[in-house]
């Protein structure tokens, strides 16, 4: 099942080239009172709601996909967890390119561990990535994003995938410079998720997925998740040893070689097998970068 958020916080299921509006299913969610939970209640209840979502498709209003404004598919993200230097060829290019490493020693995920991005950086596929006014380079990084569906602590690799609510395309935008990694990756609009969430039963094995990023018809990044240094199962297990993972948390699994700068006026076309495609516009921001 491909589940999306669209227009004014409507919930939909993709059916061919239309969205079935199943928002009424949200009335089945428990009523929350302050202090509100820090996780995504819809994703927490998704397993129980699946039969009702399926049953409602027949009579649900249909909206052409081309007429919908697609939002970030996860409404309440508690944490965005990043996996640095998680493709060997990207490690090689980062070590060889001073405009990427800025004199820093590029180490692998074994040494670096994981990092966090600000949730305020999140946007959906109908929004634009805003490039701050800076002479520093701003790069695209396409990644498989894993969305957690239930609380996880110290889980094994063998059971890791049972904690997944779904998969989506992620873009981890990055300012190249000497600032801390979380700082350079957390500017507003620097985390893109979309176009929808694909449930594990439809997505299948996350360890063997082709994906690509193109700009103006030119392939910038193309890889397969089988090339991850830490695969999806290992990443979930590792993250759960550091953080308590909760429904709606997102793990960005890392980007392959081919990272490169983007400028205002370009469109980043992202495609993932078993997920789909999305194009993200790049625009200029009036805000200056911190340096």
Descriptive report:
The chain is α+β, with helices and mostly antiparallel strands. The chain contains eight helices and 19 strands. The protein is globular. The N and C termini lie far apart (44 Å). The model has no long low-confidence stretch (mean pLDDT 95).
Head-to-tail CA distance between termini = 44 Å
Relative strand content:
25-35%
Number of helices: 8
Characterize the biggest β-sheet: 11 strands, mixed
Please outline the helices and strands:
Blueprint lengths: L1 E5 L3 E6 L2 E4 L19 H4 L1 H11 L5 E3 L15 E3 L5 H9 L1 H4 L7 H4 L2 E3 L4 E2 L4 E6 L4 E3 L1 E7 L15 E9 L1 E2 L5 H4 L6 E8 L1 H4 L6 E6 L2 E7 L7 H11 L7 E3 L7 E2 L5 E6 L3 E13 L3
Parallel strand pairs: 5-16, 7-13, 8-19
Antiparallel strand pairs: 1-2, 1-13, 2-3, 3-4, 5-6, 9-12, 9-17, 10-11, 10-16, 11-13, 14-15, 14-18, 18-19
Any descriptors?
single chain; 291 residues; alpha+beta; 11-stranded mixed beta sheet; 5-stranded mixed beta sheet; 18% helix
What does this entry show, briefly?
The protein is built from 8 helices and 19 strands. The protein has helices at 41-44, 46-56, 88-96, 98-101, 109-112, 181-184, 200-203, 232-242; strands at residues 2-6, 10-15, 18-21, 62-64, 80-82, 115-117, 122-123, 128-133, 138-140, 142-148, 164-172, 174-175, 191-198, 210-215, 218-224, 250-252, 260-261, 267-272, 276-288.
């Amino acid at each position: 099942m491909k589940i999306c958020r669209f227009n004014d916080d409507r919930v939909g299921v993709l059916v061919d080239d239309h969205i079935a509006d199943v928002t009424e299913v949200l009335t089945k969610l428990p009523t929350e009172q302050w202090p509100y939970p820090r996780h995504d209640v819809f994703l927490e209840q998704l397993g129980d709601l699946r039969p009702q979502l399926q049953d409602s498709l027949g009579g649900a209003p249909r909206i052409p996909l081309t007429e919908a404004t697609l939002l970030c598919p996860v409404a309440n993200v508690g944490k965005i967890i990043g996996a640095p230097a998680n493709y060997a060829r990207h490690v090689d290019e980062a070590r060889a390119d001073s405009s990427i490493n800025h004199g820093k020693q590029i180490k692998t995920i074994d040494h670096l561990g994981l990092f966090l991005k600000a949730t305020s950086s999140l946007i959906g596929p109908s929004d634009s990535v805003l490039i701050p006014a800076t002479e520093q380079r701003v790069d695209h990084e396409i990644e498989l994003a894993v969305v957690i569906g239930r609380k996880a602590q110290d889980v094994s690799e063998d059971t890791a995938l049972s904690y997944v609510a779904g998969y989506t395309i992620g873009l981890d935008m990055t300012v190249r410079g000497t600032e801390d990694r979380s700082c350079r990756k957390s500017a507003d609009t620097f985390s893109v998720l979309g176009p929808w969430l694909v449930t594990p039963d439809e997505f299948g094995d996350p360890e063997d997925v082709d994906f690509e990023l193109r700009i103006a018809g030119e392939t910038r990044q193309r890889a397969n998740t089988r090339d991850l240094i830490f695969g999806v199962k290992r990443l979930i297990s590792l993250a759960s040893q550091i953080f308590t993972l909760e429904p709606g948390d997102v793990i960005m699994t890392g980007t392959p070689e081919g990272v490169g700068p983007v400028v205002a006026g370009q469109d980043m076309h992202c495609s993932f097998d078993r997920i789909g495609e999305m194009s993200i516009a790049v625009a200029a921001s009036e805000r200056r970068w911190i340096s």
